[in-house]
Design brief:
Layout: E1 2-4, H1 9-22, E2 40-43, E3 50-53, H2 61-66, E4 69-73, E5 76-80, H3 83-93, H4 96-114
Parallel strand pairs: 1-3
Antiparallel strand pairs: 2-3, 4-5
Helix pairs in contact: 3-4
Length: about 120
């Protein structure tokens, strides 16, 4: 799971507190570390790994937040990237797997627009 976080000190404090509560203790990043661009924290191991990102290619946090989609997961509303932002990010990542994902997502988008 990838989590995109807004790079503000207040958000860094919330992130640190949440990660400490989750059980990371002293391994939780400092609140100030969230201010550094292009930072990634990884916890766990695939397939149960969580990546916390402060930046993703081709998509700003502010734009992604405005265009977010909320999905219901067991009665909890979870904000996720909108389809256009996900495709833009996949295209900008440049890896073969991401390009294939982007093509599949574009096909899904095209099918959903026909309905």
């Amino acid at each position: 799971m990838d989590l995109l976080v807004d790079r503000t000190l207040a958000n860094g404090k919330r992130l640190r507190a949440a990660l400490i509560e989750f059980g990371l203790g002293s391994f939780a990043p400092s609140a100030e570390e969230i201010l550094e661009p292009d930072t990634i924290w990884q916890f766990g191991r695939k397939p149960l790994r969580v990546d916390i990102l402060t930046h993703i290619p081709a998509v700003s946090f502010e734009g992604a937040w405005r265009r977010r989609v909320t999905v219901d997961l067991g009665g909890i509303g979870i904000p996720v990237l909108g389809l256009d932002d996900l495709i833009a990010n996949k295209r900008a990542a440049g890896r073969a797997k991401d390009q294939a994902d982007a093509e599949m997502l574009e096909a899904v988008r095209a099918l959903s627009r026909r309905r």
